[in-house]
Amino acid sequence: MKLFNIASIVSLIGITSAFPLTSKGPLTHESWFFDATYDVIATPGQVVTNTSMPAPGEPGAKGRFRYGINVQSQVICYNIELWGVTGEYQSPANTATHIHEAIKGKSGPPRIAFPNPVGNDRYRKSRGCIKGPFKTGVMANGADTGDGFTLDKIVANPAGFFTDSHTKKFVPGVVRGQLGGRRC
To answer: Which of 60, 89, 103, 156 lies at a 20 to 30 A Cα distance from 168?
Structure first.
């Protein structure tokens, strides 16, 4: 298992101030070490419907999703940037920006919901860290699709997960990228 030091993390995530947790309080020093990092380029052509049919997202849009995962602490830090995404977000989940469990070309349930990137139609961003247990707001078989999800599942099989963001006009996804494609 590879751990990354603070210089690698600041470089990867692009944040020079302390990472805030969204609901669990300040990060502790052990959270600054990542077991795995991912740098994902998301494009409209990778989006599929719930039936795994191609459903290209917004033409000209692009996303960059950078993640750092600390398995022991169940902390995932994120730096999400979107370019050329227009309109309002829409999703049945708590937010419209997620990591889903599914291989390339398939759809699957969200496992982690991130704060939606904010900005304008040219550029939007979202940065920070969240700590499990994870909740998505999507119910399947009477349970939230984040219930019981742990970050070691991503580290063990990144190709089995993708990240995306959804808008009202592009409900299946505005952009999508597979985590297994590029690991730092």
So the answer is: 103
Residue 181: band (very low, low, confident or very high) from pLDDT cuts 50, 70, 90: low
pTM: 0.83
Per-position DSSP letters for 2-28, written without gaps between them = --B-HHHHHHHH---SPPPBSSS-SPP
Tokens representing 16 are 């020079």
Give the residue from 75, 42, 50 showing the smallest Cα distance to 165.
42
Question: The tokens of 18 are what?
Answer: 């302390």
The string of pLDDT tens digits covering residues 156-177 is 999 999 999 999 999 999 999 9
Architecture of domain 6-181: Sandwich (2.60)
pLDDT at 17: 36
- Residues shown for the chain: 184
Residue with tokens 């600390």: 70
Greatest alpha-carbon pair distance for the chain in Å reads: 44
The sign one gets for the Cα dihedral 53, 57, 60, 62 is: negative
- Considering only CA atoms, which of 145, 21, 7 is closest in space to residue 77? 21
CB-side neighbour CA atoms (13 Å) of 51: 2
